[in-house]
């Protein structure tokens, strides 16, 4: 399934961003999906403009940005001065139909989604 998704995304006309998870130690790198707060066991995300996305955490519940909200990538912004192929994007602009808060552009439901740092303790205490 992952291979089919990767083939579909890389077949798009828009450039594809390959966004790797960044681990700060070997224990984090080897942790299971359950220990890692729902992070995928395959630590790479492929995104392009018009990619469909789903939030896996509540971001702004009072305005409809909740776990499970589905949206579309509008653009992926990187800091060109510090950017390299291994850096995370600065922000991913997404449109969510369920969003009811202020928008970056008038009459749109576009919101910035920023990289997230997650910490956890593994089931064996590591």
Describe the structure concisely.
With 126 residues, this protein is an alpha+beta fold. The protein has helices at 2-10, 26-30; strands at 17-20, 44-47, 52-54, 70-77, 91-96, 110-113. The strands form two sheets. It has a four-stranded antiparallel β-sheet, with no helix packed on it. The chain has a two-stranded antiparallel sheet with strand order 1-2.
Secondary structure: elements and pairs:
Layout: H1 2-10, E1 17-20, H2 26-30, E2 44-47, E3 52-54, E4 70-77, E5 91-96, E6 110-113
Antiparallel strand pairs: 1-2, 3-4, 4-5, 5-6
Written account of the structure:
- The chain is an alpha+beta fold.
- It has one domain (2-113).
- It is built from 2 helices and 6 strands.
- Strands 3-4-5-6 form a 4-stranded antiparallel beta sheet, with no helix packed on it.
- The longest helix has 9 residues, at 2-10.
- The chain is globular and about 50 Å long.
- The mean pLDDT is 76.
């Amino acid at each position: 399934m992952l291979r089919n998704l990767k083939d579909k995304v890389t077949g798009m006309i828009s450039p594809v961003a390959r966004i790797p998870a960044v681990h700060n130690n070997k224990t984090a790198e080897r942790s299971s999906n359950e220990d890692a707060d729902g992070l995928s066991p395959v630590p790479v995300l492929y995104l392009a403009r018009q990619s469909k996305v789903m939030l896996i955490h509540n971001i702004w519940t009072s305005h409809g940005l909740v776990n499970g909200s589905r949206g579309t990538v509008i653009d992926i912004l990187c800091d060109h001065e510090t950017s390299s192929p291994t850096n995370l994007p600065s922000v991913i602009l997404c449109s969510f139909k369920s969003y009811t808060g202020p928008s970056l552009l008038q009459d749109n439901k576009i919101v910035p989604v920023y990289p997230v740092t997650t910490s956890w303790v593994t089931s064996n205490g590591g």
